[in-house]
Every structure is written in structure tokens, then in C-alpha cells.
């Protein structure tokens, strides 16, 4: 019932974006169109053959804590072995480390496919890549040899240990301690919470990337350092040594994402827990945040993939399920029609299509920016792209988390009572997707990041670049048949959004609390404008494709209709949001706790 | 963590509505304010002591099919025994039947309390009441004696058997057959689907209310008749007789509402299945629809209750949980604050409060209309109320189902990662609530009912009554301090909504397909206008209360702030929706299946 829409992925990569052009870079020389298609073929095969088949069972039989060990459906290990054999653990890393030097754009498309198939199983390698990225960027050569290489090979898995029971959104308040030892290592003591992949018996070892405070450090984020804490110590020759003092304190039982072990971990409680400092003391959160863009884009990608899985499942169902007749057909003895013929079902499918494909467009656009930094001709050009990526990241994380969850809600609705049962995948996808607005920084935290930090950065440089890029695409679209009105519409919305941004930024600068009180509304508003831009870009690419020889007309007409839908049903909402933002409404801010 | 807000229920019943005035009617003479408070005390006690404690376990250990029988956590039976002892099974029925003649308004408040505590357990008596209502209204005296009386006593439970695997939204397409027998009874054969409470061992007997077709009947809805099909035949003396040929075919495994058995039933497969016709042949669906208002209001009430449970749980959490600091506090060593101090958390709580209390206001208003029909002085007055109730019913069913689900989403967000775990109730409430937009007519079906039927009824009589009632309340509010702007705002929105309705109704009359293509948007738009009206009514009542001796200022200030929130954050959205509706947008209608 869940199937990968390869036509859309190809369109997104090669029509809406110039992904094949990346092969002009020496680093990506191997990735011409044919090679990329080969990578996607392989990803689809591994995902459909090894990830999808156990997704429903894994949800029903979540990992269990038995005799001190985590027991997981053994098909998870088998799937990850197939993933490893296909070389995906090392996809983005340097060839000299054993990696494949895959462009982030392509790696994102691959991640999308695996997340569609089974996001819970896919989480283990994704977390491993996130942890490995940190060591790659900030670790010592010795740490890279000892820990990074086996992660790139898929032998060691990784985790990110940030939150603690009393410090979730507020990482400044972590209390895990790291005491320096004579040999340059540290002994860690403390408790970490919400550790995905926190324990398992699949990989030879687990490399925990742990935030902790060295005694005597300043309070707040400046006192946070980053440590490598392996589950098993690793000898100099790379062999597995003694068990380190990091222990599973318990598993969390979640609404969704149930196949991904989520654990509370104790450090240094059952014995000394050795950690190795990464980079400089006090820079732990700075390092984390330098890797955060990719992690947050990864969350958005997972949300989009879950949305896509539900969309494809509900689309397949809507084509098959017979129910009812058109409202102008009064002949009760006429046959029932497939529900895809009902306007409201088409609306539910269009809402999913625009959310899912609009999200994927944005996420691949953001991934392409990551690659474009590598291709940029100057530090100035690199900087401009980085600032734009910084600005887009909270949107790329949050918009899919919100609106692809909504898409999953619609997918259930298309299936009706059947969709509400565990016989179909859509209820599971909906449960899984509910996490994405919470982890890697909640929706509200992303909003503060966008309005309180990214918009303010360097006098609004990110916003200026964004506006310039949108206007360049508006100009392109303006001359194309059928797109003139959409182009003008987007330009008008953008101008209003820029004006609202200016007004809010001035307020935030002088008085942060009222300025930031409606940051979440601002995030949603900007997200809609950005997704409208993504739809204009797709409609532009589709229109051009229609003029090429032998186009796939149905596919391209679908893109144009989806663009019309988004501009008619979704984009206009932002006007109401801007009116609220412009008024600096303080109803929520002034609400007193005792009034609830 | 879940607690009943008795202050709000009292405000809704006695300040926003004149519930105590119902005791002027002979039928309700027993229900003065003190008696109603006593009923609510009893409901709260039974709900908190017997329903709430097993709610989480019941969700984790759903009913199972063992050796041909349904095995359910035995606390369900114990809770229902307490419910029976308190007399709630017979709440609304005539005293001569053993009922309590409780006003529907009061019964709704009672239902709200039980649904908050444990909607899965509460479903058994609610379904029994729905089935009993049908027999009460359309059954013969003999059927009332044999089946209704033990239902009123809570000894027999009831179910509604409408859907079949191939006929969910389209009941015209049911194929269950009822063959007449010489003794006046019928033999039924067929399969029913989604039967809540479809089998269990708690009650002495189960009375299934079954829609079926008598051979030779016309196609479509006019061929549908209603039958009583007991699980066990009942002898003339009321004793339980032989097992009837209705058999459990399987249990459905749902995302939520897991404590309520949901079954597929076979009729006449394992032996003859006897049914007794209710009323006239061919009128089955007409009878169902005469009872549908109360059933649909019941669904809305359940949705509101689930929203309320999540709101109360997240409010309690937000007062206790320490996390972060105000954005203008740069002192990392200052203590963390309760998250209820953060503007965005207050927004999430206000969104819940307005959805939940706005819904409850509407549902009690609708229930009061049911009572008011009994109190009306003339057939003309009764008719006017009935038409208004008809119009409000799809809104009262759908708006809470949509926006109290959204409230449950927010409740999870307030709890963050904790909210996503099964250690807290909010994820369960969210799963439970997802059903409400599906059963008793999906969201899309409600929209067609509203725009295609209720709005068109008697030349828009319902809409005229609604507008007149809203304007009467606008006039009341207009003179009150702080409410003038809201009153004017609502009047303007109402005028626009009426204009949009006129435009759509004209289209629906001439060409139903384009006219109804955006019926769901219309439903949501009208819902928001109606809920804004409910908030203006509550703000009016609160303002008056503030002028009375010794008012509860915090509670009343909360009502006024919530009204401001709804008018600032929610009501303005409807303008965008009306613009779309006015344009008769046909993007969804014209989308071709092959374009997806």
C-alpha cells in the first residue's frame, strides 16, 4: 500500500533543482544522473525489501528490556545489515574514511525513501550519521580512527545525549558532570533522557555523543562541553574492550516511533564512565548547533516521508474503494463509485499532496544549499548560502512536522473507519509523525530560533537573501502561461511578510517578550510563504517540462493543479496571521496563570 | 492529572444557559439547581472513583477474543455496575419506565464528566441509551416491556448496527436481508461492521438495533427497515432464552477508544437470527435520522470531553514543570520558571481552553434546545427550535471533533517528550479523539448534511433562526463594557457568512456538484462563527457575573481573556474561507484522479 513515487523524486531532483550539476564538483564527480538513479534504485530496493515488511510488526512489538538487554525484532538487525552492505552508513563521508561522498541532496532523497518505508528502523543509521558528523567536524584524528571509521562502516552506531529529565528545551540547565582524569579523559556522572537508540544489541558498539559540564565552568550554555562516551571502551588496535559505565536506566514507551529504542541512560552510576572530550571545553553546544541544521532538516525530511507514506497509501485506497455516488445522481441502483471521484476526497488528497511534495521540495532545496556551500566560488558566497540555510532550517524542520502530520490525519480520513484500525498503516504513520514537532527542538523553540535569532542575524541578511531568491523565481514564473497570477500573488505575500518581519524584528530588538509572544504564528506564516514559493518553483519546472518532447502530462498537470490548490486554499491564510502579528496581539502574553 | 472543572460546568449550565429554569416544566420538576448539583456530584464521584482509574490500563489491554468470548478488564463491569446503581442508565427516560426524566442539558453535563474520565468504558451505556431511544420512540408497547425496560435498568446493553463492509458512509448500499416469518418476526442474514459494544459478557443481554432490507423493497434508503436483534432471545416473562444467530466475526483493533469493543458481526450464519421489526417497513433510516441529532451531539460531547481531559492534564503539568526562563532574562544561574509562564505555552493552553469550553457551550446549548422543544408553547415554536437544532447538529458534531483533537495535539505539545509517552494520558486522549471525525457520519458527510440539506431546508429557515438568535445575543453584548467590539465583529462575520450561504445555496440548488465541492470548508467556517457566538455568550455571562456580589474574578477574567483570544486568533480565519467559498473554487472538483 505504501509505495515510493520515483517520478516525483526525479522531478524534484532534476527538474526543480539542478542536482545533476553537482557532478561538476570534484568531490561529487561520481554523481551524474545515471549514478544518482542507481543510488535511488538501490535505496528503494533495500527499503522495500528489508525495511517496509517489518514496519507494522515492529510497531506492535516494541523493543523490550529483558535481562538487562534490549530485545528488538531481529528483522531490524537484518535490515540494517542490508543497509550497511549497500554502503549507506558512509554515504556522505569522505572516500578516504570509507565513505561515498554522496551529495547531501541525494542523501536526503535516500533518507526520504528509507523513512517512508520504516522510520523507526531507519532512525538507527540516521542517528549514527548525526553522531559521526560531530566527530568528523570536531574530533581529533585519533578519535576519527577509533570511533568515526567504524561508524562510517556501520559497525558502531551512534546516539545524541543532550536532554536530561530537568533539561529538555533548556539545555543550559543540564547537570551531567565530567571530571577530568590524569590521562586526559573524563569521568561522567549524570542522567540523560530521551536517548533514541540509547541501547541495543545490533551494533558492535554504541558511540554516545554527550553534553556535560566540567566542574568550574561558567553557568549556562557556555559551560557545556562535548564528550564521546562509548558503550564499550575501544582498544588502540580498534578491538572492543571493557564495558564502560553507561547503563540503561529504562525504556520510554511512546505513542509512535515505537521501533526506535528510546532510553533513559545513567552515566557513572554502576561504575566509572569514561568520556573523551571533543574539541574545546565549553564549546559543546556551539558544536551541536553547527550540526543542528542537518539534524533538523533530517527531522523535517522524516515528517515529509511519513506524510508521503500516508499520502500514497490513502491514494491507493481511494482509487480502489467504492462508496457512494455523485450528489447529482439520485439513482440508488447505480453502482457505487471509487471515492477518488468525490470532491472532498480529492481535497483531502490535494491537501496531502501539497503538504508532502511542498515539504520535500523545501527539504531538498535546503539539502542542495548544503552542497552549494561546497560549490560556492568565494567565502562571501558561502556565507550568503549559510545564512540562508540558517534562516530556512527552523521552517524546514517545523512546517513538515506540522502539515505532514495534518496530511497523515487526512490519510486516516480517506480510509474512514478502516484508517482508524491497525490493519492499515495510516494510523501508525500519524502516531509516528506526532513526535516530529517535539524532538530536535519543539515547534515553539524553532519559532524563537527563527524570529529571535535567524531573522535578526546580521541585520536581516538571511531574509534579504531569501527575498531575493524568491523574487528571482517570481520573475521566472511571471512570463509563463498560467503562472502569472501566482507569481504576482507570491510577490505580494512576500512583500507583506517582509514588512511584518521588519515590524516584529524592531519590537524584538527593543522588547523581546511582546516581540516574541506570537513567534509560533510567525513561523507558520513564513512557512506557508516559503512552501508557496516551492510550489511556484515546481509549477515553473512543470510548465517547462510540458514544452519538452514527450512529457508525462498527467504528472505535470497534477503539479500545476497542486500549485493552484496551495495558492487558493493555503497561502491566503497567512494574511490573517500577518494581521495578528502586525497588531502585536498580547492576549497570550498577558494571560495570567491564575486565570486558567 | 485529569480533573473535572466543576466551576466551568456550573457556569455553562447556570450562567450561560438558564438550565435551572427547566424545573418549571412538570417533566423536570425535580431538577432545581440543588438537585442538578447533586447529580453532578454523583457523576463526578462515580467517574473519578470507578471510570478514571482503569482508563490507561484498559487502553493498554484492549478487549480480547478468547474461546468465542470477549474478555474485558473486569473493572469495566464494576464501573458500569456503579453507573447502574447511580441510576444513570435510565437518566433521560420516563419515570414510569424506571427512568429519571433528567433534562438533556443535565444528562449532557453528566456524559461530559464520564467521557472525560474514561470514554471507552462510558461508550457502553451511551450506546445503550442511543439504542433505547429508538425503541422508546418507535417500538411497540410489547417491545418496550421486553427490551427497553431492562436497558433503562442497565441490565441489557444496546448497539447500533448500521455499517457494513461495503456500506459505510453510503448506507443506501447495505445488503443485510430480513426475510419475513409467519410469526411476524424476521430472519436476518448479513454482515455488519464497526459495531461498538458489538459483543461483551458484562450485560445480561445485548439488544442490537439493525438496519436491513426486506426482499422486494425499493433500492436505496427507502428500502431500509429497522429491527431489534437480541443476542439472547427474551421470553414473554422477561427471562433470557436461547442464543440468537448473531455471532462475533472478529474484533477491530483501533488506534484509540481501545476499551470499547468494536466488532464485525455475522447475522444468520451460524444459525437462524431472529429480528423484530420496529415501526413501519422502509422507515429504518428515517427513524435513525430522527435520533441522529442526539447521537451526533453525543459524539461532539465526547470530543469536547477528551479535549477537556487533555486540557486539564496539560494545565496541571504546565503549572508544575520548570523549564527555561523569560527571553529577556540572560542570567543562566537564575532558577527555571514554570512553563505556564511562557507566552507560547499560554497560547497552547488558550487554544485548548477556547476549543474545549467553546465546544461545551455549544453542546449544552444544543442539548438545551432538545429540552426547550418540550417546553415550547406551540407547535410553531417547537418547529422553529427543531429546525435550528437540525442546523446546529452537524456543527456540534464536527467542530469539537476537529478542534478538540487539535486541542489534544496541543496538550501533548505542552508536555513535550513526556506527552508523547504512555506515562501520561494526553497521547491516549489524542488517539481516542481521532475517531470522532469518522464515526456517526464523517466530517465530509456532516458538511454535505449542513450545506446540502440543513441550510436548504424550508427556504433557509434554520439559518434565519440562527441569525436572529446570534443578533439577539450581539445586542445584549453590545452594551456591555469590553464587549462592544466583539459584538460588532461577530455581527459583521455573521452578515458575511449569511451572504456566503446565500451564494452557495443558490449554486447547490442549480448545480449540486460545484456547489457542494467545498462543503467542508463551509462547515469549518460556520463552526467558527458559531463558536465565536458561544464565546460572546460566555463573555456576556461573565461580565454580568463580575457585577454580582463576590464574583470569582480569576475564573471570569479567564473567560474574558479566552473570548478575546478566540476573536483575535480564530474568528478572522473565516474571512479567508469565505473568500474561497465565494469564488466557488473548483480546484478540488476538477482535479482528475489520473493527475494524482
Automatic annotation (TrEMBL), chains A, B:
Alphabetical keyword list: FAD, Flavoprotein, Oxidoreductase
Record SUPFAM superfamilies: Acyl-CoA dehydrogenase C-terminal domain-like, Acyl-CoA dehydrogenase NM domain-like
GO terms for MF: acyl-CoA dehydrogenase activity; flavin adenine dinucleotide binding
Domain Acyl-CoA dehydrogenase/oxidase N-terminal: 40-154
Residue ranges constituting the Acyl-CoA oxidase/dehydrogenase middle domain according to the UniProt record: 160-267
Domain Acyl-CoA dehydrogenase/oxidase C-terminal residue range list: 282-449
Organism: Allomesorhizobium camelthorni
A Pfam match: Acyl-CoA_dh_1
Domain Acetyl-CoA dehydrogenase-like C-terminal: 467-591
PANTHER family (UniProt xref): ACYL-COA DEHYDROGENASE, ACYL-COA DEHYDROGENASE-RELATED
Similarity remark: Belongs to the acyl-CoA dehydrogenase family.
Protein name (database record): Acyl-CoA dehydrogenase
Keyword DNA-binding listed: no
UniProt keyword DNA repair, yes or no: no
Listed cofactors: FAD
